[in-house]
Every structure is written in C-alpha cells, then in structure tokens.
Amino acid sequence: MNGAVLVSLVGVYLTDWEIIDIVVGGGISIFIIYSAYELIEEGVLVLLDRALDDDTQSQIVTIIEEEHSVNDYHCLKTRTAGNDNFVDVHLVFNCLISLMDAHRVSDKIEERIEKIDPSKDWVINIHMDPYDDSDINNQ
Asked: Which domains can be identified in the chain, with CATH numbers?
C-alpha cells in the first residue's frame, strides 16, 4: 500500500493528473475492505451465536438416531462461541425405562458427541422426556 501511495504521488507530480491519486486511493480502500472481510464476518458470527455447521449437526442427529433406546428427539439447538460448542436436545424415551437406564443412554450419547471434535469444549444439555412433548415446547 505504501508503494502504491508513492507511485500515486510520483504519477501526480509528473503528469498533474490528480485522478491518479483518487483511483489509487479507491483501490487501496477496496483492498482494505476485502482483506478485513473474513475478520468482520467471523466477529459478527460469534456475536450472533451461530449454529454449528451442517456436517456437525448431521453427525449429532445420526448419533441420536442410532441409539435404539431413544424413540424420538426434538428441540435440537446448537451454537458455538469461541472454543465452546453448545448442544441442547430433548430425547424421548419409552415411559417404562428406568431413570438410571435413560441416564446411561444420555451419557453414552454425550460421549459420542464430544468425540466429533475433541479439540472443542462441549456443553451438552440433554432433557429426557417420557413422551413426545414437542407440541408443548414449540409454542
């Protein structure tokens, strides 16, 4: 950029065309905006609590659906902030399953989710439902 400014000044000095300075200044402005775009985008997405990427969400859904004790799930919400990944989900179990067994299944699901990306810190909140209450939770 300093070189471009120097060339601009020399060009204006030699030709008296002040438009050279305007064009070079505009080019430098566009270059700065282009260079800063990724930083701005990442900063905005962090502030907005963006969801985990589609691939990670698909892996979470697969983990839940592969567990035979889980009848269904709803209210799956994910987000990321810095090095932390957050997952909230309601799992629907058969109402006859013991709390201990449902808790073991939930722990197993948590462990598998954490293995998706061990370099991240995971905060996983699993709500265990004895029946599908998704209609109540979506109002």
From this structure: 2-47 (no CATH), 54-137 (3.30.70.1350)
CA gap 111, 126 in Å, rounded: 12
β-strands 84-93, 70-81: how paired? antiparallel
Q: Are 89 and 76 in contact (CB under 8 A)?
A: yes
Task: Write down the pTM of the prediction.
Answer: 0.67
pLDDT tens series, the chain, 139 aa: 788 888 888 888 888 888 888 888 898 899 888 888 877 877 776 667 788 999 999 999 999 999 999 999 999 999 988 789 999 999 999 989 999 999 999 999 999 999 999 999 999 999 999 888 776 766 5
